[in-house]
Structures are given as C-alpha cells and as structure tokens.
C-alpha cells in the first residue's frame, strides 16, 4: 500500500511539474517499469472581448471648472493579437468668455478608429503601450450670450467697450477631424484597467455660426483663430468583458517561453 501511495504522489508531482514547465512527454517509474505520459494539455489561449469604461478626466474637470460639464464613455474590442477597434462617445457643455464674445457650446460627439498595442504581454495579460487613429464627428449648438463692440467715440460714456446681451442660439452645427492617439493601459485588478492617453487633433471641416468662429468644439476641445490643430488627453478606467478565446500560434508560444 505504501508503495502504491508513493507512486501516486510521484505521478501527481511530476504532472504538476510538467504542466508548469510545458514538457512534451513525461516518464515516471512505477514498480521498476517505465510509464510514458503523453502531452494532453490543450494549447494556451488568448482572451478576446469588449473593454468598456469612463473617461475620469471629465468629472475631474467639472470639479475644477464651474462653466464646464462633460461625460465620455470609452470602449475597445480586441480583433487580433495586436489590433483593437476603439471608440469614444461623449457629451460636453462649456461656456467660453472671450475678449469680445461670451458663448455656450453644447453637443455630442463620437470618435471611431483603432489602437495598435506595441507591448509584448505574457500569457493571460492585456496591458498596452499603444498608438492609434480616430475619426471624430461632433454635432452641437452655440448660444451667443453677449458680445462687446470696441469704439473710440468721446461722446459715449464708455467708448472703448460696449457690451450687448444677445441670447441668440445657433443650432445644427458640426465638425469633422482626425485624431492621433498614444497611451498606456494597465491591469490593476482582475479585468479592471487604468489608462492614460494624449491626443493630437487636426480639424478637417466645420460648420460655424454666423459672424463668429467655433472656438470650442465638443470632443475636439479648444480651437484657436489662427490654427486648425488642437490637443487633448483622457484618463480612463475600464472593465474587460471576455467573450471568446482564441488559441495561440506555436510561434507565439515559443517566443513568450524564450522571453520568460
């Protein structure tokens, strides 16, 4: 009986060692006879699914800026080992007090594109150091709250700065742009990721109100009068929902084993 129990324990220990080290065949000795155990472990598989969450920079910005409101939902979906489909959907409202204009911009936007992960993960991990592209579209409206007219007339009480209250609303405005993205995503806990990215935007076209320019576009951020280039960032927390698994190629497994 003792010999039988010892043989079982030896078999289990060798099996565990084989599972960890990935040996092709296992040979044990039982009662002076060799027993060969063939590889029966299934090929390793990568998890593919939807990762969805929020841009944390928007609520932080709401706390710091009294004239700003915003919300953005972010998502990506892994389609190959390196490529992810990506999208952001959001809404923003901001009041801008310029030298001559005080106006409020309000509207929604969507960005769609892809990310390429340049980071080599160990099996089971999906951390990212990525770069990507987005196409952005915004549909919004502008409300001209007030405007100032600069005059130089000594007959007026305040000749240099006349302010008029307007309240005029301009609807059905839009903008199109291309966005380059670079960032990182790190798994903090099981399926929970923290990410940060920077964005460089190039405005393609925009429908503007009469008599003044779009100085703020939801999703694009600030627009300057002499340039159609903008910049931004986001700070995200996302949750990954595994949908299916795909077996790794043997070349990928061999490469990861060498790295370990």
Explain this structure to me?
The chain is mostly beta strands. It is built from 3 helices and 12 strands. It has helices spanning 2-21, 57-64, 250-259; strands at residues 25-30, 33-38, 45-55, 68-78, 83-97, 101-117, 128-149, 162-189, 192-207, 216-217, 221-222, 229-247. An 8-stranded antiparallel β-barrel has the order 3-4-5-6-7-8-9-12. A two-stranded antiparallel sheet has the order 1-2. Strands 10-11 form a two-stranded antiparallel ribbon. The longest helix is centred in the first third of the chain and has 20 residues, at 2-21. It is elongated. The two termini are 41 Å apart. The model is unreliable at 4-26 (pLDDT under 50).
Structural features:
about 260 residues; mainly beta; 8-stranded antiparallel β-barrel; two-stranded antiparallel ribbon; 12 strands; about 15% helix
């Amino acid at each position: 009986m003792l010999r039988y129990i010892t043989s079982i324990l030896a078999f289990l220990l060798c099996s565990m060692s084989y599972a960890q080290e990935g040996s092709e065949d296992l040979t044990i000795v039982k009662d002076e006879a060799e027993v060969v155990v063939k590889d029966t472990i299934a090929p390793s598989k990568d998890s593919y699914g939807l990762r969805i969450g929020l841009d944390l920079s928007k609520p932080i910005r709401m706390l710091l800026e009294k004239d700003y409101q915003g919300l953005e939902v972010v998502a990506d979906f892994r389609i190959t080992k390196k490529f992810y489909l990506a999208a952001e959907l959001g809404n923003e409202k901001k009041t801008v007090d310029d030298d001559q204009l005080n106006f409020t911009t309000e509207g929604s936007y969507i960005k769609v594109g892809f990310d390429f992960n340049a980071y080599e993960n160990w099996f089971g991990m999906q951390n990212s150091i990525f770069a990507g592209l987005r196409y952005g579209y915004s549909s919004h409206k502008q409300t001209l709250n007030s405007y100032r007219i600069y005059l130089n007339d000594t007959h007026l009480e305040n000749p240099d700065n006349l302010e008029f209250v307007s309240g005029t609303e301009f609807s059905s405005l839009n903008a199109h742009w291309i966005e380059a993205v670079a960032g990182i995503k790190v798994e903090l806990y099981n399926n929970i990721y923290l990410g940060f990215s920077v964005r460089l935007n190039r405005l393609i076209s925009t429908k503007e109100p009469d008599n003044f320019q779009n100085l703020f576009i939801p999703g694009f951020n600030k627009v300057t009068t002499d340039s159609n280039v903008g910049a931004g960032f986001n700070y995200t927390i996302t949750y990954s929902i595994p949908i299916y698994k795909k077996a790794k190629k043997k070349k990928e497994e061999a490469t990861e084993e060498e790295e370990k």
